[in-house]
Write a structure and sequence with these properties.
It contains 17 helices and 24 strands. With 514 residues, the chain is an alpha+beta fold. Strands 8, 9, 10, 11, 12 and 13 form a 6-stranded antiparallel beta sheet that branches. A 6-stranded mixed beta sheet has the order 15-16-17-20-21-24, with helices on both faces. Strands 6, 18, 19, 22 and 23 form a 5-stranded antiparallel beta sheet that branches. Helix 2 packs across helix 5, helix 9 runs parallel beside helix 10 and helix 10 packs parallel to helix 11.
Length: 514
């Protein structure tokens, strides 16, 4: 999704002295500011206050987070009185601090840091837990009350997430752990590992002289990745060679491929598994190359099943490959920068070639943007089951601890003006049906002469209606299945000109171009 960085933050430098209470008597005063935690909490709270889809209540958000420290130490609780925040062990108040005003953003960030510091003093479990280990449950609680898509990623997970979106320095292999061995499952073409002679099913025994046996898959990945241009030494054991051998490999910039294009007769079958920084460029090159191979392209099957989404700008650019004008998508949120419209630009990669988009219940977010943009523009027919319905945009905030806070900041609106949020896209031709009914559908799609057995008027109505209604979604429920018959139906629809024409919306210009 579109990424924004948090604005610079000025932190409150005030340390609030606290009165520690034990039963009815007074305990010694504990001084603890937790400045590093305050830094992290301040950036997070400012981002939520500034960019989250709905206004937040700083006091409620921070208290929800602090309450999760009980997952580390079950004896520990944090509660709120009208004028204070209390930290307790086994129900007995140990520390009490004056509460900031409910809407004091930085006051509550500071309060969070202070309570964490206090908890380190009074709880041995908290004291022996790393700072990130404490942040994890706190941030889980902090975002839980927002929406189901806002989330916190700890530093290691954030690194992996950035790598999947933006690429990384690596050698171009896919690995797996089998028992105690690290096995290469795939070697990507024209990547450093290929040039070094690494092969599928090779076992990696050492990286830079360090044995890999006993390490987690994540630890091995960390050792293989690094700065682009640096050399990594990989030791390989191959089944048909007695002795292990080492290869010095220069890391390159690697972006995981999300594109797979196959040729079926004169039909291009395009599968997108996600949307990262390399998606649109790879897709354009693959389509142009494949189109040259077959000469005349009769249609495109665009398989977006199981595609969870990804970067917003890539979804827009992919849509634009097949459009020449009109609205692609619009976003609306509370922050001024979240209110945007995205329109197609002149030029198509395959002008006028019929397109069928295949979706299922795991097609979400960026995948739904592409599907609904092509549908509402009258550029494609939709086949499959209803899609997931993730009609929101997340902005990514990098935190000072190198974790990431992904927060929902806008809703998505189709060219028709209808939202995708919690609705999804209902296909014109539904393949999520009992086996016998699916068999009948396939037979009907094969029929190219005589009176159609599919109601063309009803099909046209399905295509003309907005992409969602609750009744239509009930009639074509989402499914995670990815059956071969979905693709068969898409191919047949491309070959049946009458049915295809009835399956494609004819959107009024004032809708598509407003």
């Amino acid at each position: 999704m579109t990424r924004y960085t948090s604005k610079s933050v000025k932190f409150l430098g005030v340390t609030v002295a606290l009165t520690a209470l034990l039963g009815t008597g007074c305990a010694p005063k504990i001084e603890s500011t937790g400045s590093s935690a305050q830094n992290v909490f301040s950036v997070a709270m400012e981002a939520l206050d500034d960019r989250y889809l709905q206004p937040i209540k700083p006091d409620a958000v921070m208290m929800a987070g602090l309450s999760r420290m009980s997952r580390i130490d079950g004896r520990l609780t944090v509660w709120r009185t009208p004028g204070s925040v209390v930290l307790a062990i086994d129900g007995d108040a140990i520390v009490e601090r004056p509460a900031p005003a409910p809407d004091n953003l930085y006051g509550w960030a500071e309060m969070g840091a202070q309570i964490v510091g206090d908890a380190r003093v009074v709880s041995s479990q908290i004291a022996t837990t790393s700072q990130d280990g404490i942040f994890n449950p706190i941030f889980e609680g902090l975002v839980e009350g927002l929406d189901r898509y806002s989330r916190y990623l700890p530093p290691d997970d954030a690194v992996n997430s950035r790598a999947s979106r933006e690429g990384f320095g690596g050698i171009g292999i896919q690995i797996d752990k089998v028992d105690t061995e690290i096995v290469i499952r795939k070697v990507y073409a024209n990547r450093p590992a290929t040039l070094a002679g690494l092969m599928k099913n090779d076992r990696i025994t050492h990286v830079d002289g360090h044995p890999m046996r006993g390490l987690s898959l994540g630890d091995v990945v960390k050792r293989l990745r690094g700065r682009v241009g640096d050399t990594v030494t990989v030791t390989i054991q191959r089944s048909d060679i007695v002795n292990p051998f080492a290869r010095d490999i220069i890391r390159d910039y690697i972006v995981a491929s999300t594109v797979d294009v196959k040729i079926h007769g004169n039909i291009l079958e395009v599968r997108l598994s996600g949307f990262n920084t390399g998606t649109v460029g790879t897709l354009r090159r693959a389509i142009v190359k494949s189109a040259r191979e077959i000469g005349k392209v009769d249609g495109v099957v665009f398989d977006l099943r199981g595609n969870p989404g990804g970067l917003l700008d890539q979804a827009i650019s992919v849509s634009d490959l097949f459009l020449t004008r009109g609205r692609i998508i619009s976003t609306k949120g509370r922050h001024p920068e979240s209110n945007q419209t995205f329109d197609a630009s002149p030029g198509e990669v395959l002008p006028g070639v019929p397109i069928v988009v295949v979706v299922n219940g795991r097609s979400a977010s960026a995948a739904e943007i592409v599907a609904v943009a092509l549908r509402d523009s009258g550029r494609a027919a939709i086949v499959g089951s209803s899609s997931f319905g993730k009609g929101t945009v997340q902005t990514i905030i990098r935190l000072p601890n190198h974790g990431e806070l992904n927060i929902t900041w806008a809703r998505l609106y189709a060219p028709s003006g209808q939202t995708l949020d919690r609705q999804g896209l209902v296909p014109a031709i539904c393949t999520n049906r009992p086996a016998k009914a699916l068999e009948t559908l396939i037979s009907s799609l094969k029929q190219t002469s005589g009176k159609p057995t599919i109601d063309l008027a009803g099909l046209r109505l399905q295509a003309q209606l907005p992409h969602f209604s609750s009744a239509r979604r009930v009639a074509c429920t989402p499914t995670d299945a990815e059956g071969d018959q979905d693709i068969v139906a898409a191919r047949l629809l491309l070959q049946n000109k009458a049915l295809y024409a009835s399956s494609v919306a004819q959107i009024a210009p004032n809708v598509a171009e407003r």
